[in-house]
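Notebook, bench 3.
Goal today: get a predicted structure for alpha-L-fucosidase from Actinobaculum suis so we can plan the truncation constructs. The sequence was checked against the plasmid map this morning, with no discrepancies at the termini. Length recorded as 537 residues. Pasting the sequence as submitted so the record is complete.
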Amino acid sequence: MRWGDLQRDLPAWYEEAKLGIFVHWGAYSVAGWAEPTAQLGEIPEDEGWYAHNPYAEWYFNTIRIPGSPAQQHHREVWGGCDYDDLLDFWQAEKFDAAALMRLFAQAGASYVVLTTKHHDGITLWQAPGTRGRNTVQRGPHRDLVGEYAQAARRQGLKFGAYYSGGLDWWYRPGPPHLTAASVHDIHRPRDADYAAYALAHLRDLVRRYQPDVLWNDINWPDAGKELNTNISLGNFFAEEYYATCPEGVVNDRWRVPHCDFLTSEYQADRGNEGERPWENCRGLGLSFGYNQMEGESEALSVEEAIYTVVDAAARGGRVLLGVSPKADGQLPAWQVRILEGIGTWMREGRQILRTINRPGITPVQVEGAKLEDAATNGTAPNSAATSNSATDSAATNGAATNEVARVITAATGGTGGREYAFVFRPEAQPAAGSRTEPGNATTGGHSAGSRAEDITLVAPAGKVLRWCAGPGLPGTGFRAGAGIRTQVPPAQSGQPADFAYSAPPTPPAQFLPAGQRVPVHFAAGSVGPVVFEICEA
């Protein structure tokens, strides 16, 4: 066979999926410790990233780096015990797979991906060759992969298996990683023996659980990349995985010529978010694995999490959002609150996400965005700015501090063949010590003591934007955020109309003229996203 023989259409379920849940759970969850330093991609990997790694799932590596804060913590709290002792301390006594899957489904997820083996080499099922170093024979004494797969499918979720093929610190031990070159090149296993060991794991996962996603990490041993051998990864894809799971997909981190979708991670590899199918993965906080050192102050807000999903969907991708169970199997309360908040929005917003089609994103510009400060009585803007189009600024995914609005456009297709523009903005926060007043709808709510935001919309050539308040856009099930209403002052001759948030009465749908700049005023306390339908002029 040849690599080109694996070319195939993306399965419809994955094409339509906008949100997945990424579960990192392992012996590292017992220690649950890392420094909450920064997102991947914000600090060069060769400038102290590994010694101060915010990824708690890398605990086995970090505690072996001389002088690292994690090593000091491990000595002080765990007496410098062997890492594998943590496997025996891991009991999963409160783990309820069904309850977790209900939460994920209610959050609007389409699929869930579980770490079946991370870099520490411990497997969450009785994998061949692990010599008891798995969760069936030690620790929880449970087939956690099987429990996750069964519970996910009962909730209508697709099930994915993460597997670390590029690193195994137990089967192929080496010095601690201090640089990116050590991880991706110098100290990664390449030999035929490890390739056979890892491939046996994949075969067992497919035979037992038929995963809808095979999500490899880091790389794959070079000896297994050659085609038409008894340890060939490509032949395994063709003859075993796709034959067993015809609707299955594989990611790009095998570093071979075939994949079904590309990946980015936090702010790293954002160049992969383009025309080909792609997925951005990130944790709710700075770590994928459970980290007792982080909480809501390091995490996405509900609004930022929703923004992350909508932004990726509008640009043709999807988000694999990481959650981190504690050793007992329960999620931290702050992660549950975020998922519940996403679910509240997704109950209606997902109807619009389903209309988003990958090809043909139509740019709708946002110009002159500014945040007016109450201290200046609404007259002088801060130095805030926003992207000029939906396809701009991939590196700022996640609502930057002074990013006040963005228009995100869905291509025609899906429900009703409609096309939508999203103006997403997190909830406005009043300035410290200020009074929040409702303001005047006609002038856009720029009253003293309030904090408001302005953007300017420009409709695409030959089209108009229609804003529908109250019940939402026909046929979508979408409603505006709680308390949002619009009032439209009469347009002066030759001038675009101002739109303002106010109390009822709400007018019928209004059209914004094509090609004209239309100011839109956001009064303090309003919520988003705001949705416009793009219509023919």
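The chain has two domains: 14-219+261-353, 356-537. The radius of gyration is 25 Å.
Flagging this for group meeting.
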